[in-house]
Amino acid sequence: MTPGGTKKIFISDIHMGDARSQAGDHPYGWLYSNISNLANFLEEQLIAPDVAEVVILGDLFDTWVIPTILYPLNSYEEIYSNDENSPVIEALKKLAAESKLSYVPGNHDMAFSTTDLAGTKQFMETRFPEIRYICDPDLPTGVYRSGKLVAEHGNRYCLFNAPDTWTKQPSFLPIGYFISRLVAYKVYTTGTPEDFHDILKKFIMQLIKRPNFVQDLYEAIAKDAGLADTDIIEMNGIASFPGTITVGGISAIYGQLIQNWESDPNRIGWEIAAREDAGDLALAANHILFSSGQDIVVFGHTHVPTLKRIFLGEPLEEGVDIHLDLPCHAIYANSGTWVDSVKSTYVETQEDAGRQYVRLWNYPSKTLLREAFVEL
Question: Which fold would CATH assign to domain 7-154+293-375?
């Protein structure tokens, strides 16, 4: 870390894809036009004397958003070597070389199975020398900790996108992986722009009270994409899965997801976890804040930039002055995303004069959207 730097920058949900995702009549990748914007931002953090560290909270690479009829990726190599991504890759390598880069995995860049964990770690530490790679030893998740601040991607609290350790061991692939591929197929074949989170939210709200909620939701998304049960999903040797599998086959495999989820007493309730996939993860953040004594939680995953100030356990009403000079009991922030379709945002933290500030910024306008602080 840079000596004397007092600021830490948290970004997430970059979603770099391979060359296929940016090519053809119907590009289906989520990051292309914003690459230079992101590279400029990273270069600014590299030379900023007051920035000690840039922390990427997952979904740096995207191995999920791939149409069902194309072969999937089972490593980051084709994304790393995509020439279009090189401005971002080079900036990240510079940050890592200066010991200013930390990274925890998300769901779109998780290791696919227990056998992939070591290889994923080796890839990141080889391609980005001096990176601080933070990942649990037996799961494709990680938690960044600094004092009373914790930060992670946030997908482990989401029913459809948490690592699935029950269904197809040693695979971690949750049903959200296949939902991503269904939606990518629709974009690839129709050119219709789709927001994965909007589709998931729509069907969660429509179907959550159904007895066969998980299967009904998956099948509704497949139908919306124009896919039948007998259509094929290419799997390309991903651990625990055959070379191809039918759309309907996936529905059957994950039919016991809710029962499996509820078998773990350490997880939040499945209905909350389902709604968090379509929400802002504030309930999950509160669970961490008040169960482990943390003052500040930062997530990504939802693509929804958020900063919530908590006083005695109650969120402050939205719309109050961003410069309110009153210490919070706790703070939840979400770093948003850098994909092409929305405004880019990031979270900044800073310790100063007995306070730890949390700020939510827009880039490139460098507009302060919201801030708060806790007393140290």
Answer: Purple Acid Phosphatase; chain A, domain 2 (3.60.21)
